[in-house]
Design a protein that fits this description.
This protein has helices spanning 12-16, 20-29, 44-50, 60-67, 82-90, 103-107, 122-132, and strands at residues 5-10, 33-40, 72-78, 116-118. With 139 residues, the protein is α+β, with helices and mostly antiparallel strands. The protein has one domain (5-137): Nucleoside diphosphate kinase-like domain (Alpha-Beta Plaits, 2-Layer Sandwich). Helix 3 (44-50) packs across helix 4 (60-67). The structure holds adenosine-3',5'-cyclic-monophosphate.
């Protein structure tokens, strides 16, 4: 079953480079409504827990270090077919392989500093949104 919500983070590279406004504009113009949003910084423990699914991958340590290196913007977004449409909007994980006009093609530098995260399934969108937001923080 598909739902109409996904979860995203604007990663430390994009925040540090001043791309929050540009990325949010692309999300809004693509028809995503903001349900919840938070400007925060992950501890290495929190980043490790968030990306626990990747703990056996060779890039896990680098990923956790990078994701806890500076502030991020976390958000829940709403749109029909949100998970799939958002993954189309952000483009391939590796920005050199991302299509023109995608967020990663526009703002990302490398596979680890790739500007944004987007949930890969409805189940993970729910888990990841619950990681950051209580029911009272969703509108
Ligand atoms: P994200 O969508 O946040 O989910 C997992 C992240 O791991 C991914 O984006 C990348 O930023 C990061 N990553 C780092 N190295 C690799 C790699 N070699 N292959 C895939 N993902 C990687």
């Amino acid at each position: 079953m598909t739902t109409n919500r996904t979860f995203t983070m604007i990663k430390p590279d994009a925040v540090g480079n001043g791309y929050i406004g540009g990325i949010l504009k692309m999300m809004n113009e693509a028809g995503f409504r903001i349900v919840a949003m938070k400007y925060t910084k992950l501890s290495s423990e929190m980043a490790g827990k968030f990306y626990e699914v990747h703990k056996d991958r060779p890039f896990y340590g680098e990923l956790v270090e990078f994701m806890s290196s500076g502030p991020i913007v976390a958000a829940i977004l709403e749109k029909t077919n949100a998970v799939a449409d958002f993954r189309t909007l952000i483009g391939a994980t590796d920005p050199t392989k991302a299509d023109a006009g995608t967020i990663r093609k526009t703002y990302a530098k490398s596979i680890s500093a790739n500007a944004v995260h987007g949930s890969d399934s409805d189940e993970n969108a729910q888990i990841e949104g619950d990681f950051f937001f209580s029911k009272l923080e969703r509108f």
